[in-house]
């Protein structure tokens, strides 16, 4: 038994490849048998991944889902930023630069609007729940943009750790919901061409949510959504602690 | 050689990430601004250039296509490392804010997808449903 555990621990990335392969096989079976192919296997596999992350989180109390279990630490490497970015860039191979140029203006508008809108929604909801301090409101609004913008903004403005945790929570809800819901709503919001994918990436912005949601919908859309969402967090970090904070302070200060 | 494709992909990512970090520090934010997007453009332009001069060999392409094919499995692994417990137990303010932001953003997709870049009149390509 010890020998088995140490074999698995010494080969953690290989374990991750095998595990994800198994999850994909199960997802294909579910897709074929239970949904008669109506619902894509990749969407089901991503949902199984989220369920595993939940189980891992409950089991360890950690923040990295399944990767917090030492047996599955390789999942953290496989699903970590480095390989995710490498694979996203690879999906750009065969994508059309012309299509990206055609949608440039819509992409830029959606990016700016996406950051400001998510921020504003976060602020309004926080006001409705009784928060009134401009620093708290800004931090929660920033977290509603993405879970990276929230804590960075909160730290810069000196928000309390409870508020920062709340802002991370809002961003996580947005990211997980985007992953799960995108394949279901894609048909209704016209998400079947490069331009709408570019706009989608700019509006939602959460890179993990956007790229996973598009992957579950149609993999050909991924590079277009990634193109705009890759700018979102940077733009959020730029706007939230400065212009947007001043605006909130002017209105609620 | 497969490694040439992998190296081209890796080089694109490294240059893109470096530029993204430079842009971030110029703007005074501690983040990679657009690095992946820049890397993607570099990869598209360099592979197009090679293909046009007939020097993009099938093996080179295979090195890139492999990682493109690994994208969904990698996303499944990424999903498995998300802080889902944090999202589920985030408290009502966070949940309502997150749900509202996603709902409004979804609704705006068809609206903004109508925006055309001035000077370009051709329609966008539409993907047929996958078999």
Explain this structure:
The complex is a heterodimer of chains A (253) and B (131). Chain A has helices at 2-10, 12-33, 41-60, 73-78, 81-91, 97-102, 104-128, 134-145, 149-157, 161-185, 194-204, 207-217, 222-252. Helix content of chain A is 78%, strand content 0%. Chain A contains 13 helices and no strands. By secondary structure, chain B is mainly α. Chain B folds into 2 domains: 2-82, no CATH class; 84-115. Chains A and B meet through helix 2, helix 3, helix 4, helix 5 and helix 6 of A and helix 1, helix 2, helix 3, helix 4 and helix 5 of B.
Give a quick rundown of the structure.
The complex is a heterodimer of chains A (253) and B (131). Chain A contains 13 helices and no strands.
Name the overall outline of chain B. Answer: extended
Radius of gyration of chain A: 20 Å
Q: Outline the biggest β-sheet of chain A.
A: none
Shape of chain A: globular
Spans where pLDDT lies below 50 across 5 or more residues of chain A: none
From the structure provided, what is the oligomeric state, counting identical versus distinct chains? heterodimer
Which blocks of ≥5 consecutive residues of chain B have pLDDT under 50?
none
Helix and strand sequence of chain A: HHHHHHHHHHHHH
Give the structural class of chain B: mainly alpha
Determine the strand fraction of chain B and express it as a percent band. Answer: under 5%
Distance between the termini of chain A: 62 Å
Count of distinct strands of chain B: 0
Number of helices of chain A: 13
Mean pLDDT of chain A: 90
- How much is the average pLDDT of chain B? 86
Question: How many DSSP H or I helices of chain B?
Answer: 6
Total separate domains of chain A: 2
The helix content of chain B, as a percent range, equals: over 70%
Helix content of chain A: over 70%
Structural class of chain A: mainly alpha
């Amino acid at each position: 038994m010890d020998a088995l555990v140490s074999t698995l621990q010494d080969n953690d990335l290989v374990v991750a490849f095998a595990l994800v392969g198994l999850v994909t096989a199960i997802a294909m079976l579910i897709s074929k048998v239970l949904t008669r192919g109506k619902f894509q296997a990749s969407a089901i596999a991503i949902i199984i991944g989220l369920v595993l992350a939940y189980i891992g989180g409950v089991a360890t109390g950690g923040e990295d889902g399944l990767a917090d279990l030492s047996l599955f630490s390789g999942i953290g490497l496989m699903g970590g930023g480095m390989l995710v970015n490498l694979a996203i860039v690879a999906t750009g191979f065969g994508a059309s630069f012309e299509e990206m140029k055609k949608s440039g203006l819509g992409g830029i508008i959606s990016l700016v609007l996406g950051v400001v809108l998510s921020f504003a929604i976060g602020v309004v909801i926080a006001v409705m729940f009784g928060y009134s301090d401009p620093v708290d409101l800004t931090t929660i609004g920033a977290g509603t943009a993405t879970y990276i913008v929230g804590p960075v903004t909160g730290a810069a403005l000196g928000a309390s750790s409870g508020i920062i945790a709340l802002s991370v929570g809002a961003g996580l809800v947005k990211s997980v919901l985007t992953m799960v819901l995108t394949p279901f709503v894609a048909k209704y919001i016209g998400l079947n061409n490069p331009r709408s994918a570019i706009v989608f990436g700019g509006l939602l912005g959460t890179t993990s949510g956007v790229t996973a949601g598009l992957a579950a919908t149609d993999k050909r859309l991924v590079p277009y959504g990634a193109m705009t969402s890759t700018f979102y967090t940077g733009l959020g970090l730029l706007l939230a602690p400065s212009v947007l904070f001043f605006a909130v302070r002017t209105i609620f200060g | 050689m497969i490694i040439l494709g992998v190296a081209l992909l890796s080089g694109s990512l490294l240059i893109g990430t470096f530029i993204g970090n430079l842009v971030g520090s110029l703007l005074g934010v501690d983040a990679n601004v657009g690095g992946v997007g820049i890397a993607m453009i570099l990869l598209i332009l360099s592979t197009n250039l090679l293909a046009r001069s007939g020097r993009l060999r099938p093996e080179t392409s295979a090195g890139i296509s492999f990682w493109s094919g690994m994208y969904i499995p990698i996303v499944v692994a990424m999903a498995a490392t998300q802080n889902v417990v944090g999202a589920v137990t985030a408290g009502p303010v966070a949940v309502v804010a997150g749900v509202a932001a996603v709902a409004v953003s979804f609704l705006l997709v068809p609206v903004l997808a109508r925006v055309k870049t001035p000077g370009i009149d051709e329609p966008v390509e539409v993907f047929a449903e996958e078999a």
